[in-house]
Specification:
heterodimer, A: 152 residues, mainly beta, B: 204 residues, alpha+beta, lipopolysaccharide transport protein A fold, 13 strands, 16% helix, membrane (chain B), transmembrane helix (chain B), Lipopolysaccharide export system protein LptC (chain B), transmembrane (chain B)
Amino acid sequence: QGTGIAFGTPQDGDQPVEVTAEELQLDQAAGTAVFSGNVIVGQGDMRLTAPRVDVTYMTDADGNSTGGIDRLHATGGVTMTSGGEAAEGREAVYTVGSGQVVMTGDVLLTQGQNALAGERLTVGLDDGQGVMEGNVRVVFQPQDEAAEPAAQ
Amino acid sequence: MPRADNPYSRFVAWAKVILPLAALALLSSLFLLPGRGERTAIPFADVDIDELAREQRLGSPSYSGTTEKGRDVSLTAETARPSAAGPGIFDARMLTGALETDGGQIGLRSDGGVIDTEADTVDLAGNVVVTTADGYVVRSDRLRSTLGQITLDTLGPVEADGPAGTLTAGRMTASETGTGNVVMVFNEGVRLVYLPADQGSDPQ
């Protein structure tokens, strides 16, 4: 089971997704688009930064692309911030349609003073809920008025 | 000649007058009547002949060849005229072109351009549009492309829209990789905006 946490404020999944990068490579034959060079993916108040993001298009049944982005696959060390929370991990897959981000590879989530580490963080941007899985470790800052961690 | 007293001579006298007149009428109808039927103007192009001769302008010239990788390249223009810049260099108007690649065809279109047949390059200028097979339409002011092996370079800002959304970039270059596949690279600051709304994605 995973530890449920709040991540950022719920946001509408239909907001425009903006991607800025130093370079974009379009390979017609392979049907791929690759952003590279400090790529920033933004939607609403979610920001996801990574050195490389691969775009996979939506495809219909027999595999030719029907236009539209299906998933953004960020690799090479990803940080995601939304509102006050920030999460870091090796890779992240952002499925634009469902507004879900799955971050994997020793993920570290920081919320104010507290930190939550685990192997895999799944965040639903639409409802602002996240689930951390894979030997989850919670790090408290032992201060006298430390806020209760939001773990349910 | 004394007056004829018998009908036959009178008949001959009249015939000598009537018959030539009839012949004359018949002959003149040959020229007058047939002309009235189909009076069609002889079709001829009212192009300014000496202007054409002076400028040696080519009407809808087309250039086609194959690249080193055996991809065929074709380029047509509405008009092209030799430019003073040198031999084998043409100023062309209203160009359209097509480059064959692995992933389908790349279409080029522009208002004007300079074709250098020696160096095998084409410098397109004036709302250049590049269309790719997977649905990207790239617009820029200029585009330099070499025809020997396919390379494209917009040398300047470019905007494009396609499956991944609409994007702007400082520059776009495209080149043929080893296997003859063409990869388009946008650089000098890429910014893309994708609207999931109009893709009918299913918001939770």
